[in-house]
Amino acid sequence: MQAFLSSSIPATSYSRSSFLPQPPQAPARLALPSSGPRAAAAVVARRAAAEAGRCVAASASSSPATAAAATEVPGTMKAWAYDAYGDASVLKIDEAAAVPAVGEDQVLVKVVAAALNPVDAKRRAGKFQATDSPLPTVPGYDVAGVVVKVGGQVKGFQEGDEVYGMISEKPLEGPKQSGSLAEYTAVEEKLLARKPKSIDFAQAAGLPVAILTANEGLEKAGLCAGKSVLVLGGAGGVGSLAIQLAKQVYGASKVAATASTKKIELLKSLGTDVAIDYTKENFEDLPDKYDVVFDAVGQGEKAVKVVKEGGSVVVLTGAVTPPGFRFVVTSNGSTLEKLNPYLESGKVKPVVDLQGPFPFSKVVEAFSYLETGRATGKVVISPVP
Ligand SMILES: NC(=O)c1ccc[n+]([C@@H]2O[C@H](COP(=O)([O-])OP(=O)(O)OC[C@H]3O[C@@H](n4cnc5c(N)ncnc54)[C@H](OP(=O)(O)O)[C@@H]3O)[C@@H](O)[C@H]2O)c1
């Protein structure tokens, strides 16, 4: 985590492109059908009202009428779930899924927004069934929401805290059976961070898996100030953050990235120095070589052709060709906390795909869109009822 200690962060100007997140989309409603302890429920209701453009006086939260509206966490909730592996059609809404029990080291999060990742689709297709949790599964790793209950040993969070995180520490090894595509999800305190105030819940929900993967990959590849990096798949969820972290957190001297024609301007707006349109040029045929190649596409065989001698090739998916290596991201709240200042300051920005955010009722459509492989930044689910 040495990179975080760097005091010389290049001051890159960041121009907002049409792909970048627009002003927060107001959740149509976040009527808590139920809520946790009253204070937390009031915070959630006020936050939802604020994001919906309504104004709720702070004092109203303690009025008898509002207090009466706040009830205990229910035993059941709405959740998307599947009880057999397959394509997106296996997903069904369960109107009475069990609200997960809260362990001693966990908090219960009222989900305000969630996000999809390719791993959700691959898991749903049964690709990881040897190490998966038992069916039925409520999918979803990414969450942003409000703490409504805390376990007995939780020290860092309290009811009402706005948090975000990746809910399973090891996404492929016994991930949680009850994920974030639900009204509530239970998460270990150590996997969560405070949501940066400068971004809304939808933007925060799109970050955890992607930003943790980008960070861990760049760190494992040994990127540091003055080195060059090529990001393959720069317009995707992970790639759009790898570009920004390389520049803003790791101090890379040159960031190159690939995407198709329509996304070249986005790459530049994220800080890419050399934007390569893969529909017109083969990156492996260009003369440039890089200290680090970050492959978020599955082009490991080509990636190793453009790495400098002694450099690193980190591969997220597909076949690995030496000297390339692959890793699987580990969830970690303290890493998110360390990245929070870059998000607070706007040096690193979430990129939310403008086909969304998809409301909770449109999760099947959101999965189908993600699985086209053409998403720009993150496919976000918001609001969640
Ligand atoms: N190992 C791990 O721990 C880990 C963690 C996270 C993700 N992953 C994996 O990493 C991959 C990327 O994840 P993601 O969330 O970033 O996916 P994503 O957001 O769905 O990626 C979509 C993007 O990929 C781009 N793309 C597709 N083919 C491309 C090509 N040939 N060259 C350049 N860009 C291309 C698309 O841009 P165009 O439309 O311009 O083609 C699109 O913007 C997935 O396979 C995922 O499962 C692994």
From TrEMBL:
<dbReference type="InterPro" id="IPR036291">
    <property type="entry name" value="NAD(P)-bd_dom_sf"/>
</dbReference>
<dbReference type="GO" id="GO:0010319">
    <property type="term" value="C:stromule"/>
</dbReference>
<dbReference type="InterPro" id="IPR020843">
    <property type="entry name" value="ER"/>
</dbReference>
<dbReference type="InterPro" id="IPR011032">
    <property type="entry name" value="GroES-like_sf"/>
</dbReference>
<feature type="compositionally biased region" description="Polar residues">
    <location>
        <begin position="1"/>
        <end position="19"/>
    </location>
</feature>
<dbReference type="InterPro" id="IPR002364">
    <property type="entry name" value="Quin_OxRdtase/zeta-crystal_CS"/>
</dbReference>
<dbReference type="InterPro" id="IPR013154">
    <property type="entry name" value="ADH-like_N"/>
</dbReference>
<keyword id="KW-0520">NAD</keyword>
<dbReference type="GO" id="GO:0009409">
    <property type="term" value="P:response to cold"/>
</dbReference>
<dbReference type="GO" id="GO:0008270">
    <property type="term" value="F:zinc ion binding"/>
</dbReference>
<comment type="similarity">
    <text>Belongs to the zinc-containing alcohol dehydrogenase family. Quinone oxidoreductase subfamily.</text>
</comment>
<dbReference type="Pfam" id="PF13602">
    <property type="entry name" value="ADH_zinc_N_2"/>
</dbReference>
<feature type="domain" description="Enoyl reductase (ER)">
    <location>
        <begin position="86"/>
        <end position="381"/>
    </location>
</feature>
<dbReference type="GO" id="GO:0035798">
    <property type="term" value="F:2-alkenal reductase (NADPH) activity"/>
</dbReference>
<dbReference type="InterPro" id="IPR044626">
    <property type="entry name" value="AOR-like"/>
</dbReference>
<keyword id="KW-0560">Oxidoreductase</keyword>
<dbReference type="Pfam" id="PF08240">
    <property type="entry name" value="ADH_N"/>
</dbReference>
<dbReference type="GO" id="GO:0035671">
    <property type="term" value="F:enone reductase activity"/>
</dbReference>
<protein>
    <recommendedName>
        <fullName>Enoyl reductase (ER) domain-containing protein</fullName>
    </recommendedName>
</protein>
<feature type="region of interest" description="Disordered">
    <location>
        <begin position="1"/>
        <end position="32"/>
    </location>
</feature>
